[in-house]
């Protein structure tokens, strides 16, 4: 590293030595190249993002470019944006860093601005003036591009980003990093791909069974440890044997399964005795996390010292200061604070943000020793632990339970091992009859985590593409997408075969063309061949006479030429089949785009010329281009037709909450009375959804989610000023947790603002999301 380089100056301020992969990544940025960095969790990828911010700040503060030099640091979730904002403020100073998450705006004109990726995508669509002077963009957790629901945002952003902006993409380890990097290189220019697969803190894999902690792998053979295998086999035999007396006793089943080897408080105590705390215990349901905390509260478990309790309470008070006492009571403050004071807590999206942030703060300080968390904690939030516990290897989904993939297992266990603190991290899987050592070993040993496109050509995307690039420009951009890149890669062997066939076909056609008049003979010969199995004897006799009397029948090379013609016909058929397969794969994106355009034209959001060569977006289409949600066209239809006209702000918020498309559970009926205007607007919304769904089915598109009024009454209560406590009581009747309601209300505020019918500041804000 050259002493006079910008990287050398940056590194000198860090207080630690950069790893080789960090140096290579930062040098790429310093040399004005894009960079894709793939490294394990905790390896230090964010240093590369901080160097991008450093370069932008340096450019901003030079005398030659006082107004040029801005870095946008994007993350997949608001909680991570909040955390990264605090980190960068500590690194560069409060005046240099801003925050934009949709519901929070702080110093948007700062030289370094942290935001969710959706905010940047929206800015690119709207050509925001904040883009002026942009020199660097960091896309943290860029592997989110594969997320089925939100991944398209990352892909669109990479495609839209101006070529002169340097892009630093930070990803967990993926097995097709070179392929992904090749696509970025194709659409953005010179890109350096840096892959580092070495964990900064080695990870030891364990299995806990019968109260005993086993190593999963033998240190000598590298396969499942014999001692563990023998113990599990013994347990399986013992469990299968009938009880004494020859018959099985009846045992009352618990509704909450207890892990093999003891109840949860006992296992936590065992981990403490083995010096394996702090730990993150992953359970894949919010209720499961809460139930585990309740079990610990009902036990004698205590993981803290008396001297730590005042500090714990002080930090908790700082995070909850904006919540009035009534709201604290409504969200279960007393049990929550008792758990914190005893050293354990839950962490999931069902908690109000203030509680989640407090848990993160306390855990990072070592004051909370065990967190029972859903997998959302694995998404970038900086809460490393010494140990990660996995209770099961199956997680619930909307379509039923599914087993963890190797990539998910690695992402979860990647939180184990604190750099600079722990000599090694520990992953502990709890044994049960459905979780065998070989299955765990398979997950832990697999290193193939490919990254695939999840680009979805939705209505908002279509109108923004056409409005910005025109019809042909939109099609060309889709042709440059990672989705299309992968599609073309998947049929590359077929494309090679088509090219080889085409060369042979050209040669055979040339050979047959040199045989003057033979084409007519070949046609007669083929007709005779078919007629012998399908036609009358009279027809066969006539064709046979015509064949024998044709000059081609007397050619010495007749047999060879007929064989050549037969081979030519087979090659043509085979080539047509392969081309059809290629078109079916590579044309899907364009086909979906064209079908979507047809729906938009029917509804008046854009106009296509009769030849389909050009299009322009209407004013209603531009409004649709500013609406970002799963049901974007339904929202636009409600605005266009006046279904939501004349509503009070609180009524508009209530109705809008029904079209967010994010319910974890569908409501079983009406959500309770609000106002006649809300009820009528909901009926109109449902009628419009029915019309839209029929149109989508006719055009072969995925149907927009139907409206769900599960949160309507609770959002209405909050929006009219009744407060969080009153709203939570209503939400509980519909099965919504506090965190569900808070997140839904925040998204409702965003969507209300996007409709243009009401400004979000006409509704009560959520003042405790950033702490």
Automatic annotation (TrEMBL):
<keyword id="KW-0347">Helicase</keyword>
<dbReference type="Pfam" id="PF00271">
    <property type="entry name" value="Helicase_C"/>
</dbReference>
<feature type="domain" description="Helicase C-terminal">
    <location>
        <begin position="263"/>
        <end position="470"/>
    </location>
</feature>
<protein>
    <submittedName>
        <fullName>Dead/deah box helicase</fullName>
    </submittedName>
</protein>
<dbReference type="Pfam" id="PF08148">
    <property type="entry name" value="DSHCT"/>
</dbReference>
<dbReference type="InterPro" id="IPR001650">
    <property type="entry name" value="Helicase_C-like"/>
</dbReference>
<dbReference type="GO" id="GO:0055087">
    <property type="term" value="C:Ski complex"/>
</dbReference>
<dbReference type="GO" id="GO:0004386">
    <property type="term" value="F:helicase activity"/>
</dbReference>
<dbReference type="InterPro" id="IPR050699">
    <property type="entry name" value="RNA-DNA_Helicase"/>
</dbReference>
<feature type="region of interest" description="Disordered">
    <location>
        <begin position="239"/>
        <end position="265"/>
    </location>
</feature>
<dbReference type="GO" id="GO:0003676">
    <property type="term" value="F:nucleic acid binding"/>
</dbReference>
<dbReference type="InterPro" id="IPR027417">
    <property type="entry name" value="P-loop_NTPase"/>
</dbReference>
<dbReference type="InterPro" id="IPR011545">
    <property type="entry name" value="DEAD/DEAH_box_helicase_dom"/>
</dbReference>
<dbReference type="GO" id="GO:0005524">
    <property type="term" value="F:ATP binding"/>
</dbReference>
<keyword id="KW-0547">Nucleotide-binding</keyword>
<dbReference type="GO" id="GO:0016787">
    <property type="term" value="F:hydrolase activity"/>
</dbReference>
<dbReference type="GO" id="GO:0070478">
    <property type="term" value="P:nuclear-transcribed mRNA catabolic process, 3'-5' exonucleolytic nonsense-mediated decay"/>
</dbReference>
<dbReference type="Pfam" id="PF00270">
    <property type="entry name" value="DEAD"/>
</dbReference>
<keyword id="KW-0378">Hydrolase</keyword>
<dbReference type="InterPro" id="IPR014001">
    <property type="entry name" value="Helicase_ATP-bd"/>
</dbReference>
<dbReference type="InterPro" id="IPR012961">
    <property type="entry name" value="Ski2/MTR4_C"/>
</dbReference>
<keyword id="KW-0067">ATP-binding</keyword>
<feature type="domain" description="Helicase ATP-binding">
    <location>
        <begin position="26"/>
        <end position="192"/>
    </location>
</feature>
